[in-house]
Amino acid sequence: MHVLHIVGWYPNHLKPFETPFIERHVRALDPLCTNTVWHLDVRQGDRWSLHRRSLKADRTLILTTPLRRWLLVELMATGLILWAWLTRDRRLRHAVVNFHIAYPNCARLGLLRRVIGLPLVVTEHWSIYRLGFKSGAKGLDRIRRIFHLGVPLITVSRALADDILTFAGPPHPPVHVVANAVDTALFSPAPLEREPGRFFAIATWRHPKRPVLLVEAIALLRARGRDARLRIAGGGADLPAIREAIARTGMHEHVTLIGQATPEAAAAEMRRSHALLHASDYETFSAVCAEALCCGTPVVASHVGGIREYLTPALGSPVPENSVEAWTEAIDRDWDRLLTLDPAVLAAAIRPVVDARSVAERYMAVLRSVAAANAIAR
Q: Looking at the predicted structure, is the pLDDT value of residue 378 above 70?
């Protein structure tokens, strides 16, 4: 089977570390089918530009525009997809077209379905549905209609599926849950002892992540006499706020910003750490929490969204409230217990959910069923 993936977010020359979890979802399918990836996106910026260089996609067209009107962005996104489709390599015979991130690329999904003439699937990772796109604009109805056309929907958690269905309202599409994929050959336990008091956090630091809370919790833990240190990897809009929090709390010697980390470096950090810390107001899944567990590292994380579906006290410490006091209490209370958790047990508990091969088999079953249903309908 040949699957065409049209992605709105993907690692690219402008942002090499953009949404690696989408790339891993797609690449997990490689042993089971032939994948072609088009990175097509209209994104807002200060000036017009068209970026064509492909870092990891087979084809990249990123149009940057200073325009802010939703409708205009949607029309440009639709135009970009139609142009890419009409100028495609027609020797490639696609069986299914899989859109990743519905908005704005799928804003005219009915039109795209008629022009493309192939079975479509939408895979969603975005948490914005829970917030109703932070808007009350009439344009929201155009987004809701994406999910009223009966196009099958794949989400990375039941929580995200519920968010989308609540946002869109009926009629609901067929829904399938396929977790994020983890490279369990890379993210796996190693025969070394975790270092007490050494904590690790990694993300693209922007809302809904709460990195400042982590810095303040480390400061309060140290005030309680705990030898807590935190290493923070990743970039993002909240880096200035993190630096300000480090300066304000006097944590220069105890909280270290290490910048972007390769998957290999992140796995090494996880294996050495007392625990991975992940504070967030919401997560559709949290691939980094799953990666840490695959490394045999306990996870202390906000008990929100998709994290609730796999993180139990046996695997770390779910934190029920995003306050400095609650986080400090959770880490302080479970300090010794976290160090006693068996890495092999942690990895074995999460691996069936996120192992790339298992994810690919569930994912492929959905794509085959969609292709088969289309063949029967014809």
A: no
